[in-house]
Specification:
Blueprint lengths: L1 H27 L17 H8 L5 H11 L18 H12 L3
Amino acid sequence: MRFTSAFILAAASIMAAPSFANEALAKTAGCTSCHKIDGKLIGPGYKQVAEKYKDDKNAEKALIEKVTNGGKGVWGQIPMPDNKALKAEDIKTLVKWVLAQK
């Protein structure tokens, strides 16, 4: 019985890990200086971004472009700087994570 409980706990940890890992990536990349998960900081909260783009089939591609190159005007006049120093796969991971927020 103890083995089964330990196995279930380990499996749950592994399944939750990408969520924590991606939040950690957002912090490491500096995203949380302007964004938080819920509610506006300087830029919109990740949940608000996910809600805005939930029915947009091109959202992932468009947001990867925006995160990579920066931009302004969609959420206000404060510009988002480019993130060209980040690896393309990290940007894709972050965008997927943001779009998965509920």
